[in-house]
Design brief:
about 210 residues; alpha/beta; 3-stranded mixed beta sheet; 4 helices; extended; Asparaginyl-tRNA synthetase; ligase; EC 6.1.1.22
Amino acid sequence: MRGIQVIMDDPQLATGLATGCSVEISGTLANSPGREQSKELQAKHVSIVGPADPETYPLQKKRHTLEFLREIGYLRPRSQTIGAVMRLRDQAEMGFHRFFHENDFVKVHTPALTANDCEGGGETFSVATEIPAGVKADPLTEFFGRPVNLTVSGQLHLEVLAGAFKRVYNFNQSFRAEPSQTGRHLSEFWMVEAECAFVDKLSTLID
C-alpha cells in the first residue's frame, strides 16, 4: 500500500508534476534517513507519461467518501480505501483456494443460470430474452423453454458433484433479488460453498 518517497535535488525535475500523474522515474535507490521509510529514490530523471490537470483531477490527497468514489468509478481503484479492499479480497480468495486444495477439494464451477431456487425463498432475478416485434412469445420462457433465474447458491450442484469427487467447492457469484437497500443486503456477491461426502460425525464437519 505504501509508496516510495522520491527525492529531487533539482527543482526542475518536478516541473508539471501533480496528483494523478503517471510518471517514469529513474535514479538511485538509497537508504533513507527519515523515519517513515527505509528506502528512498534519489531521482536523476523524471518524465511524465500521462499528465493530470490539478484543477480538474477529482482524486486529491484527502479523505473521500464512498459515495463520492462511486461517482468516479474509473478512478476509485486508485484510492487507498478501494485499493485496500481489492488487495484484501485477493489475499482472502487465494487463502480459500490454498485451504481447500490442501484438504483434497476439487474446485468446480456451478452455473449462474439455473432453473433451481436452491433456498426456496423465491427472491431470484428472472432471466428474460428480448423478443422481436410482432413475435408472440413469453420472454421468460422463450430461450430455455421454462423460467430461468440467476443463481442464489451452487449448493444443489455441489451435492451432485460430491458424489463423484467426494470433496468439492466453488467460489462463484450469487444473486439475491431481495428488495432491501440496507448495508446488510447485496444483489450480487461472491460466496464460497463446499460439500463433502462420507461425513458421518459432527466433529468431522466442525473440524
